[in-house]
Give the backbone structure.
Amino acid sequence: MSAKGPLRVPPKAPPLAVNEIWRRAAERLRATLSDNVFNSWFGSLQLEEVVGGRARLSVSTRFLKSWIEGHYQDKLKAALAAECEDINAIEIFARSMQGSVVRLASPRDENLPAQVAPAGEPVASEPSRAAPVRRRIEPTAAAPVGSPLDRRLNFSTFVAGRANQLALTLARKLSDGADATMSPLYFHAAVGLGKTHLVQAIAHVALARSRSVVYLTAETFMYGFVNALRSQSAIAFKESLRSIDLLIFDDAQFLQGRVIQTEFGHVLNSLIDAGKQVVIAADRPPSELESVDERVRSRLAGGICVEMLGFDESLRLKILEARLASAKLAHPTLDVPREVLLFISNAIVSNGRDLEGAINRLVAHAQLANTPMTLAAAEVAVRDLIRSREPKRVKIEDIQKRVASHYNVSRADLLSSRRTAAVVMPRQIAMFLAKSLTLRSLPEIGRRFGGRDHTTVLHAVRKIDNLYKTDAQLHDEIELLKNMLQE
């Protein structure tokens, strides 16, 4: 015994509670992996118990369980072991999204204090060993708020013709939910040709059959995902989408942002791989979604792609008759002669929205003038809707092929970095035509011409525009190319 008295052994620190172990380990992981990675993959992770050196953790889905085990298991184990040296193994399991019962540590389990409760919850009274503490895991992922549906846009009000019959047939078949091999089903058409009407009709039928459906526009998806990131609920947002039966995604051409596109791609792959159904609508085919990630374009192109064509005169007349019949329900005295409908169906060739606008103008004119509708009166009522016939929609690939053939160079030459005069002038003409005949932006055109900067495209457009106005021979050549492309 020492002259200074007996040695005093400091008391062993009491073991940490489960929630404190996980809080400290989570801080280590967040510092190691970054906030974004931690929030994306560990946001729903919970440490449920530590028994016999094994830490048991739960996550909201099997997908997260598989991902964490495959990518972060060693880092997770090291972070937990750093806060509780008795931990030498970890086990991860998926809890039900509907809420499941999981066991917390018994108060007499090793390495744990007598009373344990998750952070923010009251401490339970001490139970017997035969009755371990249990708690209900509430769902963490509420269904995302979809875009509103219009009750008028259903199959009964959709007017079919040769231009959209195939699209309608496939939409009806998919709405029954019988054939998952149709996923993804991709509709594309110019503005006002019925894409949104058709996909909302699918949603109405699926909802009536008690299927889990979310209808989202690209804008709503982007807004919802950004808000989920800000509120640190991105996991809940993504998992709620993965749990549905049918996703309907409208206006896909507006999908922007690398991170958002990546997450949309994950959701798309998850649903399709799980045999769920996905319907996409856009104003162009997948190959022309220049602003969308290439992997997403590839997955969309691998589905069933259907183009809804412009309306012929007979279909325009059917649409006008249907809209007129609907208007007469509210205005029984409305009388529009057939010759007026024939005139409108021949004069308004743009899209269905203009046709509906024409009927609305006829109704307003009839109410205000209180006189019989004549052909002359109809011309006055709808004159702002009568446009010159729209030219054929031209693709940048068509422009490149036509210009290359006309100037006896290859399309690869136009996309290359070659600077010889025999290639530079045709390339600039092709860029000028792409700007003149398509709705593509300068950066998009640059990407389609070998990844060039938008300033290069702007220089080419300005140069050819000046020559077009001053060089008669070049003017005639460009007009010839325009006519051939628009035939």
Summary: The first strand starts at residue 46 and ends at 51. Residues 313-330 form the longest helix (18 residues). The CA atoms of residues 49 and 105 lie 5 Å apart.
